[in-house]
Amino acid sequence: MRKLLNVLLFLFIIHAAVAQPVEVDYRKPLNTSISLSANFAEMRSNHFHSGVDLKVGGVVGAKLYAVADGYISRINVSPFGYGKAVYINHPNGETSVYGHLDGFNEKIRKYIEAVQYKLQSFRVDETIDDPDVLPVKKGEVIGFAGNSGSSFGAHLHFEIRKTHNQVPTNVVTRDIIRVMDNVPPNIHSMAVFTLDSTFSITTPRLLKSAKVMKKGDVWVPEGNTTFEVYNPVYFGVYANDYQPNNRSKFGINHMTAYIDSVAFFAYTLDEFTFEETRYINSFIAYEELVKNNRSYVKTFVEDGNRLSVYKNVVNNGLIVLNDTLEHTVRMDLFDDSGNKTVLVFKVKKAKELNPHNNNLFDPEKFRPALWNMHFNCENEGIKVYLSEESLYSNMLFTLDSSAVNTGFYTPVWTIGNFATPLHKHMAISLKPDMPEPLKKRAVIVRINANGKASSVGGTWDEEKNFIMANVAEFGSYSVAVDSIPPTIKLAFKKGADMRVHKSLTVTIADNLSGIDTYNGYIDDEWALFDYDAKTRSLTYRFDAARIKKGQRHRLKVVVEDGCKNSATLDAEFIW
Ligand SMILES: [Zn+2]
């Protein structure tokens, strides 16, 4: 009996020691009715959208409410990304995130401004581990909706993440954000692809794309043709969801594909990690995106694609037809509310073999780069390095150069194929022919299809022979020089009386290497200027706690670009 009691006591202690997850009943982050302008995991450039965007009627300043009790665990302020953002940890092991704020509540504003003044930096990312520093209650106003960071129109970006691994979750399928939606997904077009093989390396190729139309309960390709295909074959669907009384486009939540009623491919976008979000470039048919701006989700999972959203994929989603009969492909697409759209079409194996397959390639022109190996390519003017798993599939790597154009100090190097996605940054080193004094103003530039050059930065090796940058895309690169300092423009007249104003603004811009540092001083003291990269503006909110009211003040703004060209503006104003 005694022993049993001890065991029970022991079990009780164990039970008490393991923190029980506390149930949390979330409220809405806004007091207005919920209307989305973006849903969870909809497809963006190089990433899946990590939350939902909630409309605020286009008006800056809507009150934002803590969705549950908790404490502020992070405050991030940036001219890019989430702009001004608040993170709240809740006792259920989840974190709510609020992005693109116009401003914070008084308590949070004071806290973060003290950090900004201490570090003399607008840009700060403050983590707070102590729950007693900034506790919040459910329904407390934490800030105001805005348009800060990479936002193009006032809205709230809202997320619920798992605190321990920061994995964002789908708040609509979890019913945390309630959306009334009876509109099924809409299919724009579909596509059939094959893999051409050269030697042992395969290259994706679009065989046919087709518009689709509704026929009874299902969607079919226009003309209802049977697609003649080469082995192996896979499929793409370009679709969006819509919601009632809402003009925004949304992403598809989950999809299952069948051949002759047997499922061979499925995915669900209810959560993903930030580490894997760039695999979106393999989730879609990347070449169709960059060439034709169509986002086909493909049923093929490449070897180097480690996205965790796939379910029960057979043979990487590749279909091999062994007979010449017609086969039926069906794709079931679902939105976040479970509304379903079905696409049906027929395929059959072509009579001839794929004419693009061949077992020869010119080793002078191509070098095989394998997805799971690192890759090096060097000659006297250039070095290219890919670490392992930079590619999703093996590729035939190409390197071409053209003549040196005016304004550039190397040939234009075309590295790889711009229609092949890169998962990791590629290290490129270029050897420019340029006078020594210009070297400190040099940057590597990416040259787009229209010939426009944009800086990707650059650092010199020890001998100052090669300039190096890590770049995110294959394409055309060269070296240019930025010797023009940034511009700084006052949005008011020098000496102006600003006493009726709440803030003052200057606009800053740079021609090539981009704004690197920006600092504003009032009466020779560092002052907090909010930098908004998209409007190129620096804004100081008059603060009677820091500058004396009713007198003349000296303003100084110093801006430096990525090549250390510096500009200074001096002015006076009355406030
Ligand atoms: Zn968003």
Quick summary of this structure?
This protein is mainly beta. It has four domains: 36-169, Distorted Sandwich (Glucose Permease (Domain IIA)); 186-349, no CATH class; 367-481, Chondroitinase Ac, Chain A, domain 3; 487-574, Immunoglobulin-like. It contains four helices and 43 strands.
Describe the protein's architecture and organization.
The protein is mainly beta and 575 residues long. The chain folds into 4 domains: 134 residues, Glucose Permease (Domain IIA), CATH 2.70.70; 164 residues, no CATH class; 115 residues, Chondroitinase Ac, Chain A, domain 3 (Sandwich); 88 residues, Immunoglobulin-like. Helix content is 7%, strand content 41%. The strands form 9 sheets. Strands 1, 4, 5, 6, 7, 8, 9, 10, 11, 12 and 13 form an 11-stranded antiparallel sheet that branches. The longest helix is centred in the first third of the chain and has 16 residues. The protein is globular, with a radius of gyration of 28 Å. The mean pLDDT is 94. The site of zinc ion has 5 residues, from loops.
Q: How many angstroms separate the termini?
A: 82 Å
- Number of DSSP-assigned strands: 43
Overall shape: globular
- Helix percent band: under 10%
Percent range for β-strand residues: 35-45%
**How many domains comprise the coordinates?**
4
Average the pLDDT over all residues and give the rounded result.
Answer: 94
Rg, rounded, reads 28 Å
Task: Give the count of helical stretches.
Answer: 4
Structural class: mainly beta
Q: Which stretches of 5+ consecutive residues score pLDDT under 50?
A: none
